[in-house]
Amino acid sequence: MKELQQTINNSSDKIQVRDLQLVTREAIGRMKEGEEEKTKTYSALVWTDKAIQKEDIAFLDDIKELKLDQKTPLRVLHRRPLAVRCRIIHTMKSEYIDEHHFRLHLKTQAGTYIKEFVHGDFGRTKPNIGSLLNRTADILELDVESVDVDWPPALDN
């Protein structure tokens, strides 16, 4: 495994692998059990139909531990059961770009549907960025910045 990890790491400067290892079925089960405690950070490019100013989005930075009710999104309904899931947006930081665009940095509970949090999914995610800003919002880009989970266990190298 160490050899394979080294080969991967030497093959590209775009990705790096650490702690590559075989894991047991039980270890995967433990990871799945802890899934709801994981957090993820994202960067989203948001478009709004009505013009915005910095002041219009500044309040987003002050919102902490925002509770969402998310119905299974329409885009995944064919492969996931219909349910309402309570998810948490831990923090948000907005970056004004121009009168119709801003970047939103989010730290969320794992399992949060970010695209739907931005556009609302026809009212299936409440609250959402559109409802908070009182205008139509849509997502143009979404990047996962980090997945914060202590798994797999670190290897002694």
TrEMBL record:
Domain Pus10-like C-terminal: 1-148
UniProt keyword terms in alphabetical order: Isomerase, tRNA processing
Pfam family, one: Pus10_C
GO biological process, one term: primary miRNA processing
Keyword tRNA processing: yes
GO cellular component: cytosol; nucleus
EC number(s) given by UniProt: 5.4.99.25
Keyword Heme: no
InterPro entries: PsdUridine_synth_cat_dom_sf (IPR020103), Pus10-like (IPR039894), Pus10-like_C (IPR048741)
An MF annotation (GO) of this entry: primary miRNA binding
Entry-linked Gene3D superfamilies: 3.30.70.2510, 3.30.70.3190
Domain of life: Eukaryota
Enzyme's top EC category: isomerase
Family: Belongs to the pseudouridine synthase Pus10 family.
Name this protein carries in UniProt: tRNA pseudouridine(55) synthase
Gene giving rise to this polypeptide: PUS10
